[in-house]
């Protein structure tokens, strides 16, 4: 049954499209602004001419940033962190979720283990004791301090174990009949079949490690061990809070700094923008598969 | 094959995770005992003096504590309310968009901010909201308003926090509601059209009741966040001028513990927070199970 749309319906549609499109533009406008500033001359930025398009186009701020030693060392730490953190984190999640996805009949200790892990989602451990523990283990100033303490992400384990449970029981039984043990079944049946879920969790893990900064800030004593986001904090946030304390008086020297800050902010975002198309494709499906249950 | 032998590989698989969680979660949990000590790092857990509830007594007498607790609850509550309403409204509006590619384009853009760190967003916001040079204030001035010191004014700071947080997260939160909307049986709409219902009536009598269980679920689960006003965001946006309105429990712990080195007092605050949070999270999981049939695992 097709009826002619009423005037009210047309008006609603126009308003709705206008609202939603402007909202979504608003979501990326700040990034566009930063990109425009990073590609403009500092004189144009200082004068407030730069809105969403570069004025007096130049890439000098990028040239400046990319030869800064601190930027490059922290970038290397971040890359190392993402690679190690994702490898360790994903292996742990895969082998941990498997036993927990079993029925109590097949694995009698399951409930005990599940509670052991879930409690860590309910009770947080406290910043100071957490720091003291990591210090006592001797991880301060090492890359492992950024990888190991958060390696077992219980939320992701729960997401994956729910996915494992949704797989047909018959496949597992068939594998056992063919003589495969638990390890073999996990490797040849469960892992290949959970690609959508694993892809989602991998991308979230990568983004999580890339974006993390607080642990870097307090677990690393010397700035040359900072991951990129912790280093960026010292550049784009800390300096400003000093400045904001002195009532935002913009000295010329500081303002010409704005283009290089913008360039660093944009470079810090770039990897996210690069993985985002892949992330986009997977996460909606992966998230809902893991979280919505009948 | 004995049961023990069959289950052995499963235990082995769990060993690394069990050890890591024990080391980095359960030991720090036990380490919370320093809240009842006068903890001195060189003396350690066993050598430091026990002081009972002195640290808690000290905190109650500290004038900042009540202000911090109030700020935390106030900011967290506003975030919870905004975090429920905005995504529901956006999901309902997005559901009315019939052109598939427009819908997908909008979603792609509104999900993006969720994936940026508060360092990046903090850097952007500090620049954009600066009263003298920020683009937001240039715009306000162009409209004829006085510039607003969003990040340095105690009356504006909490509002700026709530709005910028919503800006970052609303797109991502709509996923849940969109998933629920796509699960509604289309036959219901057809039946309603036959009965002569317009889009508005359909929304009111089919769409909203259908996603009500998810709304209830998200509402109950968000209760557990009552003391989480967002450390990462506040820590990267605040400055001494706005401690009065912006200092929350987590930033308070950081300043007492890391900046002032008052380890025991900071841990006392943390312990208080985690006890209250534990109660609220447990309660919210229990209610979510009772009323929406939600289970964590």
Question: How would you characterize the overall build of this protein?
Answer:
The complex is a heterodimer of chains A (294) and B (297). By secondary structure, chain A is an all-alpha fold. Chain A contains 15 helices and no strands. In chain A, helix 4 crosses helix 8. Chain B contains 14 helices and 2 strands; from the N terminus they run αβαβαααααααααααα. Chain B has helices at residues 3-31, 44-47, 54-61, 63-95, 100-111, 118-129, 135-142, 157-182, 186-194, 199-222, 231-237, 243-246, 249-259, 263-292, and strands at residues 37-38, 49-50. A two-stranded antiparallel ribbon of chain B has the order 1-2. In chain B, helix 4 packs antiparallel against helix 10 (199-222) and helix 8 (157-182) crosses helix 10 (199-222). The longest helix of chain B is centred in the N-terminal third of the chain and has 33 residues, at 63-95. The two termini of chain B are 29 Å apart.
Give the overall pLDDT of chain A as a whole number: 87
Can you list the strand order of the major beta sheet of chain B? 1-2
Proportion of beta-strand residues of chain A:
under 5%
Largest sheet of chain B: 2 strands, antiparallel
Alpha-beta content class of chain B: mainly alpha
Terminal CA distance of chain A reads: 33 Å
What is the radius of gyration of chain B computed over CA atoms, rounded to a whole number of angstroms?
24 Å
| Helix/strand order of chain A | HHHHHHHHHHHHHHH
Give the low-confidence spans of chain B: none
The geometry of chain B reads as globular
Helix content of chain B: over 70%
Beta-strand level of the residues of chain B, as a percent range?
Answer: under 5%
Largest interface: A-B, 104 and 97 residues
Distance between the termini of chain B: 29 Å
What does the main sheet of chain A amount to?
Answer: none
What's the β-strand tally of chain A?
Answer: 0
Q: Which outline of chain A best applies?
A: globular
- Counted by DSSP, the helix tally of chain A is 15
């Amino acid at each position: 049954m097709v009826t002619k749309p009423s005037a009210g319906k047309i008006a609603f549609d126009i308003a709705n499209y206008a609202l939603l499109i402007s909202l979504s533009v608003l979501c990326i406008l700040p990034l566009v602004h930063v990109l425009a500033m990073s590609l403009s001359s500092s004189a144009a930025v200082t004068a407030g001419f730069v809105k969403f398009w570069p004025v007096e186009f130049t890439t000098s701020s990028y040239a400046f940033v990319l030869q800064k030693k601190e930027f490059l060392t922290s970038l290397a730490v971040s890359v190392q962190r993402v690679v190690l953190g994702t490898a360790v984190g994903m292996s742990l999640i895969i082998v941990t979720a498997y036993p927990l996805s079993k029925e109590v009949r097949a694995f009698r200790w399951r409930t005990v283990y599940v509670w052991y892990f879930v409690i860590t989602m309910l009770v947080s451990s406290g910043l100071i004791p957490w720091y003291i523990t990591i210090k006592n283990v001797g991880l301060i100033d090492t890359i492992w301090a950024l990888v190991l303490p958060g390696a077992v992400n219980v939320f992701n384990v729960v997401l994956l174990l729910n996915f494992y449970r949704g797989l047909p029981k018959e496949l597992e039984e068939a594998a056992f009949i063919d003589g495969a043990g638990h390890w073999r079944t996990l490797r040849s049946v469960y892992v290949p079949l959970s690609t959508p879920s694993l892809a989602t969790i991998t991308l979230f893990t990568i983004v999580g490690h890339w974006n993390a900064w607080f642990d870097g800030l307090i677990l690393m004593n010397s700035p040359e061990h900072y991951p990129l986001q912790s280093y960026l904090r010292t550049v784009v946030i800390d300096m400003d809070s000093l400045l904001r304390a002195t009532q935002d008086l913009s000295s010329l020297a500081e303002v010409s700094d704005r283009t290089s800050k913008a360039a660093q902010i944009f470079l810090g975002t770039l990897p996210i923008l690069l993985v985002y198309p892949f992330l986009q494709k997977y996460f909606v499906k992966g998230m809902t598969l893991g979280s919505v249950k009948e | 094959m004995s049961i023990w032998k069959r289950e052995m590989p499963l235990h082995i698989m769990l060993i690394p995770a069990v050890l890591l969680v024990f080391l980095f979660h359960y030991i720090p949990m036990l380490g919370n005992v320093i809240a009842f000590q006068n903890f001195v790092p060189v003396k350690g857990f066993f050598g430091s003096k026990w002081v009972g509830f002195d640290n808690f007594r000290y905190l109650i007498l500290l004038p900042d504590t009540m202000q911090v607790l109030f700020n935390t609850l106030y900011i967290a509550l506003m975030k919870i309310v905004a975090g429920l309403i905005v995504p529901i409204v956006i999901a309902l509006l997005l559901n009315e968009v019939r052109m598939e590619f427009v819908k997908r384009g909008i979603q792609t853009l509104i999900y993006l901010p969720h994936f940026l760190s508060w360092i990046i967003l903090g850097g952007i916001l500090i620049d954009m909201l600066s009263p003298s040079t920020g683009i937001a204030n240039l715009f306000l001035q162009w409209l004829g308003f006085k510039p607003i010191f969003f990040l340095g004014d105690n009356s504006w700071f909490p509002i700026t926090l709530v709005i910028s947080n919503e800006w970052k997260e609303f797109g991502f939160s709509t996923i849940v509601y969109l998933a629920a909307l796509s699960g509604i049986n289309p036959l219901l709409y057809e039946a309603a059209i036959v009965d002569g219902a317009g889009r508005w009536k359909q929304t009111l009598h089919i769409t909203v009741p259908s996603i009500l269980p998810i709304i209830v679920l998200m509402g109950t689960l968000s209760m557990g966040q009552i003391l989480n006003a967002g450390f990462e965001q506040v820590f990267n946006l605040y400055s001494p001028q706005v401690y009065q309105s912006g200092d929350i429990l987590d930033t308070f712990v950081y300043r007492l513990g890391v900046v002032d080195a008052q380890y025991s007092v900071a841990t006392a605050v943390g312990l208080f927070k985690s006890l209250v949070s534990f109660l609220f999270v447990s309660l919210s999981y229990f209610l979510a199970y009772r009323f929406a049939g939600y289970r964590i695992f």
